[in-house]
Amino acid sequence: EHAILPNVFSYGAALSALEKSGEWHRAMLLLQEMPGRGVEPNAVTYNAAISAAGRAGQWQRSLQLLREMEALRLQPDVVTFSAVISAADRGEKWALALAALQLLCAQGFQPDAIAYSAALSATEKGAQWQQALALLCQMHTNRVELQVIACNSAAGALALGRQWERSLAVLREMPGSLLEADIITYTSVIRGVDLGRQWTLALDLLQEAWQRKLELDAVAYVAAVSAVGRAEHWELAAALLQDMRDKRLRPSAMSYNAAISACA
């Protein structure tokens, strides 16, 4: 009987499986093995390998694979660049993520929601609120459909940049895009109003999230406790900590420190 020899399709399927299972190192070995087996890698196999490396935060390896594609004269596509942007995001390299997005546009491609969301996530990790705002404007100009994850990253970047009014605006404009804010959105905005010393607004947002039946988590409470702590309202800080206990949320050292600062 003749042995069934692997081809580019079987390699592509195997690489995709390794990507999904997070086995990036095996994916690299499999890609390197292909030429020796007489199988020429294509854009699909490279995309899977780049994505596998990206999921593991191996942004340097993702860049190396992109350069290999160019050396082999394989045309990178939206999937390729989105994978590189995601790798840069996971590696907390916001400048690289934006450079990859710019290169994607320079190649004549239109970034999709996935590429923009990954780039926005990178700007949040880098606290680059101006860049996040610019990306939101690009998405609007290019008529790219907003997603909740993109709004959350934008709100987070703006909050970290002490742009609480803009962060709040992202939350308020979500219904216009038929998007429902989640607890991550509210937590990001509460962090912003905390840094902006808007403690009453922080409590209003926490109450609003509760009224919308969102599952309040410890992170949201910590941001609210921090806000009232900055304003030295120890009674409110203590009440929030008790509310956390009532909801069986474990207060963190950070929340206790914020409450203690309210008593100082």
From TrEMBL:
- A Pfam family annotated for this chain is PPR_3
* Residue spans of the PPR repeats: 7-41, 42-76, 217-251
The domain of life for this entry's organism is Eukaryota
Q: Does the keyword NAD apply?
A: no
Per the record, the coiled-coil ranges are none
Q: Which UniProt keywords apply?
A: Repeat
Is this entry keyworded Ligase? Answer: no
Name of the molecule in the record: Pentacotripeptide-repeat region of PRORP domain-containing protein
- Organism lineage string: Eukaryota, Sar, Alveolata, Dinophyceae, Gonyaulacales
